[in-house]
């Protein structure tokens, strides 16, 4: 995999935090930023997929009535409070 340079504007406080972390773990600033980007992208891609799946379920009618969901939640809350 080849790497390309990008330019990114960040406030000084954020850069200082990145640099402190990089120093603490013995890594470069670029490594920390690449790790952060990987984690962010993994989560956002997962989240968008979940939203799309939910929308598809709703469009296909694969839903539960509000009353049923609330009744299940109340039972769980009551059970937790009884413990």
Topology:
Elements: H1 12-25, H2 29-59, H3 66-82
Helix pairs in contact: 1-2
How does the helix and strand content classify structurally?
A: mainly alpha
Q: What does the largest sheet look like? A: none
Coarse morphology: elongated
Domain module count = 1
The strand count comes to 0
Distance between the termini: 54 Å
Low-confidence stretches: none
Mean pLDDT: 96
Strand portion: under 5%
Descriptive overview:
By secondary structure, the protein is mainly alpha-helical. The protein has one domain. Helix content is 75%, strand content 0%. It is built from three helices and no strands. α1 packs across α2. The longest helix has 31 residues, at 29-59. The protein is elongated and about 50 Å long. The relative contact order is 0.05. The model has no long low-confidence stretch (mean pLDDT 96).
Care to give the gist of this entry?
This protein has 83 residues and is mainly alpha-helical. 75% of the residues lie in helices and 0% in strands.
């Amino acid at each position: 995999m080849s790497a390309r340079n990008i330019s990114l504007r960040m406030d000084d406080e954020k850069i200082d935090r990145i640099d402190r972390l990089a120093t603490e773990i013995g890594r470069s600033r670029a490594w920390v930023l690449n790790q952060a980007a990987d984690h962010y992208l993994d989560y956002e891609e997962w989240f968008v997929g979940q939203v799309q799946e939910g929308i598809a379920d709703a469009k296909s009618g694969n839903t539960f009535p509000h009353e049923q969901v609330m009744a299940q939640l109340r039972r769980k809350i009551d059970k937790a409070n009884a413990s």
